[in-house]
Structures are given as structure tokens and as C-alpha cells.
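Field reference: sequence -> structure
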Amino acid sequence: MAILLHKESRLIIQGITGKQARLHARYHLEYGTKLIGGVTPGKSGHSVEGVPVFDTVREARQKSGDIDAALILTPPGAALDSALEAIDNGIKLVVVITEHIPVHDGMKMREAAETAGAHVIGPNTIGIISPGKSKAGVMPGFLYREGNVGIVSRSGTLTHETASNLSYRGIGQSTCVGIGGDIVPGSPFESILKLFRDDPETAAGDNISNQSFSNKLVLCG
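Structure field:
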């Protein structure tokens, strides 16, 4: 089952017509993520990598159906409005890749998500991946292997390094979450740890000994 992001999760990318967003749209499709659309104001009717573009999140929902997750790749000045738009339209997982977002904007994202029962991952994050199922982020998927070890970290580089070393040794991961390096993360460590605690697919493997946390292995960094 993993946490937050699953095989059937339906994703949109906000800011999809930007240069980097176009590139990552392709990477998401290649990984197998169910990328169902993108949002860029004024670009409705266009497409990116065969994926339709809409003017608003509301239009995306009206024309494409339910949306489980939003990946935000907009400039810093637009990131808060993008996150609030996603949350206001009922999206429960909002992944904010954007860096250099003002602290108060990050606080507003977190408050809005908590009020709506949603989760903001980031800002300033590599995103989230449930290996073999789906991803919403900018991590190279080949470093990650499906399994039962959870990873949560502020550092994107540390997440890559930890996952790749585990994968090299045949130890897969259930979900890997980069909560972001900003002062106020949208989802702090404790909120992600609670989700791992309740996830039946996050558990210590047979070749991993001396574990606690109810026989679960969750690596934090």
C-alpha cells in the first residue's frame, strides 16, 4: 500500500508548460505515474507529452475526474497560490518542488493543508516516491527499489544516497519522502512517521535485525 502515493494515484503538474516541468512530465510518464493533466493559466487546450493542459485545477477536475496529487513546479512567487488552489479543490497530496519560497508562504501552505486534512510535501523538496508504484518528484526512479523500508529526510541528496545503497544491497523501499529543506516543512518528520507506523507495507525485512518501531524500519535524515 505504501503511504500517500500509490499505484493508482492520479497526478497533475502545476506549471507544466515550463522547461523543467515539461522534462519531468516525460519522466513521470516513463516511470508509470498516472499523470492525467497539467495546469498553466492561459494554456488550456494545449498539451505536454500528450497530457492535456488546463487553465485551472478546477477545470482539470471537471474534465479529467478525481485528482489525488499535485506536483508544483511554478516560480516562487506563484507557488503559494498554486498550493492553495490545489488544496481548495480537494487534492490531498501537494508536492512543492519550488525553492526560495518565503517562510510565511510555507506557513500558509501548511496551515491550509492541516485545515483541509491534506499533506504538503516541501517546499524545496525532491518529492515523494513509492518505488514500483508511482512518484511525484524530481528523483531518478532507477535509484529506488520496491520493498518495505520507509525513508523520510530533509535532504534530497541523502535520500538518493540512502535509497541507492539499500537498493544495491537488495533492500527495497515502501515510500521515500523528502520533506524539504526549508525552515517550515509542510509535513514535519512526526507526521510522516505516523503514516509509516500505520502502513502494513513498511516493516523490517528478514535480513534487517535489531529494529524497533513495532518491527518497522524507517530511516530518517
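Note: Helices lie at 19-31, 57-64, 76-88, 103-116, 156-168, 189-197.
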